[in-house]
Specification:
This protein has 454 residues and is of the alpha/beta class. The chain contains 13 helices and 15 strands. The chain has one domain (9-448): Glycosidases (TIM Barrel, Alpha-Beta Barrel). α6 packs parallel to α8 (193-212), α7 (169-178) runs antiparallel to α8 (193-212) and α11 (340-353) packs parallel to α12.
């Protein structure tokens, strides 16, 4: 393992501003994307989905992935060398559920290794790998989730302080249940809404379960991004507003205000009384709110035809259409690079939610680029860290920034074709090689610890 990656400090002439003391610098991963050792856990909805021909673009599976399950010591050493304060990983529910309960032993070992290396463990309790046989269309899945969360909290709670309930229920609803691009591969369009409600309920029940186990530092990782109308035309503005409701407000409003945006609560499964009672659970106060940010979306009125967008085919019957954001650099995934979208998003949240918005942590931000000398990734991350600082100067209480991701990994329906890592993984040999961006992030963290720069 080579760890001498370092950049030419291309930004040294324009030093990064200093973030507040106690600000958490970290990196994120998820279980299904890196662990492998599929034979040592129960099956998940992703195993069945991956086995269907044509679902994963390069025909790969996550059976081995980065083999993190067996190589976690090497990966924790990479974290220690990087100097991060915290590591966000996810706990695999199908592994915890595996016969004999041995799955939790793995997380025990991982958490011990992290603590010994001085890196704070920040587990996410659900990052899309639902045990096979469970279904988010069923309300009972929320209760089952809370039981599993209690088991994990009892086992790890003596060493884990900071918890994340769910990763991106919006994307899991949209990609997995509305559009069929992710597991479990359903194409329910608006009939997928119960999946959103049941995950939100699962979140609230998990917060209660964590509190019952004594946890005092609990958040969620929700995906958000500004929605830009394609034009001032009222039809475009209306379509953009609806898209914003689906991606942003439908998932943030219930958690932060205890209400669904107008017109949405009526579409959720169950009587008005039951939804109102659920919303009380969903709005359990959080210690912080996690935001995964990648890019804004430009949205216009429907165009009556399928749209190819960012590797995804959107059906013609959607009440909006997604348009390209022109004139911006693009990642290998085709996503536009728009750092100021992060400032806009966070100041918009502060304006919308006011005192109801707890401190914010960026739980994911990153980009896919090939190559070890990944200056494009350095430029992307540098721009977004500066944009985050601008949000902080504008009065948003930001407390942390986690890069997606530590390692190149199984990028869901894209297989191994998209590389988001600060560390390159050779998927034939599983060798890890830090990229230039790893050296850049290490230098940034060291500079921040040294005190004011510039
Ligand atoms: C997800 C990650 C994913 C990343 C890049 C996020 O939406 O939480 O699992 O790898 O985006 O697509």
């Amino acid at each position: 393992m080579a760890t001498d990656a370092s950049t030419d400090a291309s930004t040294a002439s324009n030093p990064l501003p200093r973030f507040p003391d106690g600000f958490l610098w970290g990196v994120s991963t998820s279980a299904h994307q890196i662990e492998g050792a599929a034979e040592l856990r129960g099956p998940s909805v992703w195993d069945a989905f991956t086995a269907e021909p044509g679902r994963i673009k390069d025909g790969s599976t996550a059976a081995v992935a980065c083999d993190h399950y067996h190589r976690y010591r090497e990966d924790v050493a990479l974290l220690a060398d990087l100097g991060v304060d915290a590591y966000r990983f996810s706990v695999s529910w199908p592994r915890v559920d595996s016969p004999g309960g041995v799955g939790l032993d793995f997380y025990d070992r991982l958490v011990d290794e992290l603590c010994a290396a001085g890196v704070r463990p920040v587990p996410t309790l659900f990052h899309w790998d639902l045990p096979a046989g469970l279904d988010w269309l069923e309300r009972d899945t929320a209760a089952r989730f809370a039981e599993y969360v209690s088991v994990v909290a009892r086992r790890l709670g003596d060493r884990v302080g900071k918890w994340i309930t769910l990763n991106e229920p919006a994307e899991h609803t949209l990609l997995g249940h509305a559009l069929g691009i992710h597991a479990p591969g359903r194409e329910l369009l608006f009939d997928a809404l119960p999946v959103a409600h049941h995950q939100l309920l699962a979140h609230g029940l998990a917060v209660r379960a964590l509190r019952a186990s004594g946890a005092t530092d609990v958040g969620i990782a929700n995906s958000h991004g500004p929605t830009w109308p394609a034009s001032d035309d009222p039809a475009d503005r209306e379509a953009a507003d609806f898209y914003d409701l689906l991606l942003n407000r439908m998932f943030a409003d219930p958690i932060l205000t205890g209400r669904y945006p107008e017109g949405i609560g009526e579409l959720m499964p169950g009587s008005a009384e039951r939804i109102a009672a659920d919303l009380e659970i969903i709005a359990e106060p959080l210690d912080w709110y996690g935001v995964n940010y990648y890019a804004p979306t430009r949205v216009g009125a429907p165009q009556g035809a399928e749209i190819e967008f960012g590797g995804v085919t959107l059906p013609a019957e959607l009440p909006f259409s997604v348009r390209e954001i022109e004139g911006r650099p693009r990642t290998d995934f085709g996503w536009p690079v728009v750092p100021e979208g992060l400032t806009e998003l966070l100041t918009g949240f502060r304006d919308r939610y006011g005192d109801r918005l707890p401190p914010v942590v960026i739980t994911e931000n990153g980009c896919s680029y090939e190559g070890l000398d990944d200056r494009d990734r350095v430029a992307y991350l540098d721009g977004h860290v500066r944009a985050l600082h601008r949000a902080s100067e504008a009065g948003v209480d930001v407390r942390g920034y986690f890069v997606w991701s530590l390692l190149d990994n199984f990028e869901w329906a894209e297989g191994y074709a998209r590389r988001f890592g600060l560390v390159h993984v050779d998927f034939a040999t599983l060798e890890r090689t830090p990229k230039a961006s790893y050296g850049w992030f290490r230098d940034l963290i060291a500079d921040q610890r040294r005190g004011p720069v510039g």
